[in-house]
Design a protein that fits this description.
Layout lengths: L7 H17 L5 H23 L3 H32 L1 H5 L1
Helix pairs in contact: 2-3
Amino acid sequence: MSENEITPHFWTRADEIIAIANEQTKESNIGDVSTSLLYAAARFNAFNVASSATNIEEMKHDKDEAIQHFCEQYRQMLIENLDDHIANFDDNKA
């Protein structure tokens, strides 16, 4: 799958993860859940990079590129979602 191709499975997985986070806000504050979710994403993405490396040297070599890639992806996704919340602020507060 290319980075620009978003399948229905992408949205289903994202919605399932968000549903778990929403459930956790019933017993924890949203900031704590957000921090845990961000940590989980970082941990899983590090595992993704480690799993694709054939040896430790390759992983060390790919580290900076992986950091740049995931940070830029997160930045773009955050911008898109903030813009969506701004555009729909009144509807989301109803």
